[in-house]
Amino acid sequence: MRHQKAGRKLNRNSSHRVALFRNLAKSLLLSEEGKITTTIPKAKELAGYMDSLITTAKKAPTLTVPDNVRFTKRKDKNGKELPLQEGERMATPEELAAYAQRNHLRRQVLRDLHDPKLVKKLFEEIAPKYADRPGGYTRVLKLAERRRGDGTQLALVELVS
Question: Residue 69: exposed, middle, or buried by beta-carbon count in 10 A (0-12, 13-18, 19+)?
Answer without folding.
Answer: middle
